[in-house]
Amino acid sequence: MNLASWSAFIGLLLLVMALSDSVLSRLPLSTSMLYLLVGMAISPLWLGWTAFSLETHAEDLERLAEVVVLLSLFTAGLKMSPGLADGRWRPPLRLAVASMLVTVILVAVVAHTWFGLSIGAAVLLGGILAPTDPVLASAVQLHRPGDRDRLRFALTGEGGLNDGTAFPVVFFGLGLLGFHRIGLYGERWIAIDLVWAVTAGLAIGAGLGTLLGRLVLYLRRTHKEAVGLDNFLALGLIGMAYGAASLAHAYGFLAVFAAGVALRRVERSATSAGEAEVAAAATATPAAGATAAAMPDSAAVAEHVHANPDVSHAERVATDPHLAPAYMTHAVLSFNEQLERIGEVAVVVTIGALVWAVDWQLVSWTFVVLMLAVIRPLAVALGLWGSRTSREQRLLIGWFGIRGVGSLYYLMFAVNQGLSSVLAANLFALTIAVIVVSIVVHGLSVTPLMRLYERSKGRTPT
């Protein structure tokens, strides 16, 4: 296909999804399922418009997945509450460390004893499949800043954290295979890949998010400057956090997530709930379905507008000493969520287009079922043992261990380190099978299960 044909196809896909999104949200299926079908349709399985393969497109696929994960991690961070002192942080921390470690061990044991993979390859497979997805799990994550639901908070935090905490496992597996230096007794892996890369990544991201947030608020409140182009603010912070962490040999994924959390903390420490509603209303537009009468606290917005008729209401709120923090966060979050949705389209269509390249004889469907229906729930049960989460929440967290873009990234990252073609084909087949099944079964179950959960909490399902 030429550029014009691709442009028309992509434009049509985006228009169809935009016009049907509200309808799809009420049906027992997800948009990711439709993107997956589109990808399969344009592959050699049917139309043959594209032919992605592991041998020729591994580097391109790694870059695509990396960018989409970064956007999603920053968005997830912006939705989280500030400060580890908040008790709601304990479940996601336990899920990202304890549950992920249990998942890696169980996957490695099954892969080593069942498939005959070497210990290094089995550990690597565990690292690839252990992280849950921050992109495809949006339906079960926090919908907005300030959402205090423990289930959504746990899944959002887990998706943000374990896409970074999986890196040490992947590096350890690569080290056992001889593709990464871990030291004679693993001392280099412990010092550099575990301790330094994790702590430095979190520190760099948190520092940059805090510094930039305070700088922007100072310029806006004091000098009425640095107003507008909040999309540049989001992309700039993502780029700075990821680049600085990578240059310091730390984990850029953790840095970007921490940057989002830190920016959110700056806003929360400088604003109140009422002010956040006014700022959120100011970022809304009639095109997004908002009207002055329907906006939260629209009278307060009008008061700020009429105080200075020569300045737009958005600029007034953006530079107001009380409302500037909330406005900054809402503007950045809104822009990033739109980019995240576009990234989801690109990467899931690509996953669908990869299905034809899988050697399905290498796939054990029993392992896929074990991964999603046994290993994940067991890992969550052990990781959250004794926590304050309810039995209902633990069951749902155990089920919604969605695998997707994060696993695709780690797979391609490992392949690009020089794995043998035989091992790469095995890992590719198992990983794509788990991702595809996860997209389908979780996509079918997310709407009815989350509606039941919302009703059990006495809330109106969204």
Mean pLDDT: 85
Structural class: mainly alpha
Main beta sheet, described? none
Could you tell me the number of beta strands? 0
* Gyration radius, in Å: 22 Å
Uncertain ranges: 285-302
Order of helices and strands: HHHHHHHHHHHHHHHHH
**Looking at the structure, what is the overall shape?**
globular
**Beta-strand percent range:** under 5%
Helix content: over 70%
SS element count, helices: 17
What is the end-to-end distance? 40 Å
Give a topology summary.
Blueprint: H1 3-24, H2 31-42, H3 54-79, H4 90-114, H5 119-129, H6 150-176, H7 187-223, H8 230-247, H9 252-269, H10 273-283, H11 298-306, H12 313-319, H13 324-354, H14 365-383, H15 391-399, H16 405-415, H17 421-456
Structure, explained:
The chain has 17 helices and no strands. The chain has 462 residues and is an all-alpha fold. The two termini are 40 Å apart. The chain is 71% helix and 0% strand. The model is unreliable at 285-302 (pLDDT under 50).
List keywords for this structure.
single chain; about 450 residues; mainly alpha; 17 helices; globular
Give a brief description.
This protein has 17 helices and no strands.
